[in-house]
Amino acid sequence: MTKILGCLVATVLMLPNLAKADASYSDSSATVTHDCGKDVNAAFDNASSTITIIGECDNIAINGASNKITIVSAKKVAITGASNEVAIEAAGKIAVTGSANIVTYVKGLGKAKAPKVAKTGVGNSVKKAKPAAAK
Questions:
Q1: pTM of the model
Q2: Closest CA to 54 of 89, 102, 15, 94
């Protein structure tokens, strides 16, 4: 019970910052690329989409289902929905709510080896991934 309450508090604390999205996207079956070099905050309300987020982001909010998302770097990432696959290179905080979301990260931001993680729901997974091989 304490663990669930802690995850809910962490998610709620992230919401005010995520509401300040500089850019927002809403579509289904779309291919979207967002550059945080132009807008550091972004919100996505998508389904069955492929989303690529490049640059150094502050806050990324993802709401939807069956999306494939790649994020280079974000201070805070909030994922809500079902069956999303999210690959993150570097993050400070990750909050996952919903079911069957699969999130991988390579590293934390700065000196942190891993991001702070809060997850609620059923069947959600947040795991460390190996860095992509250099080409």
A1: 0.83
A2: 89
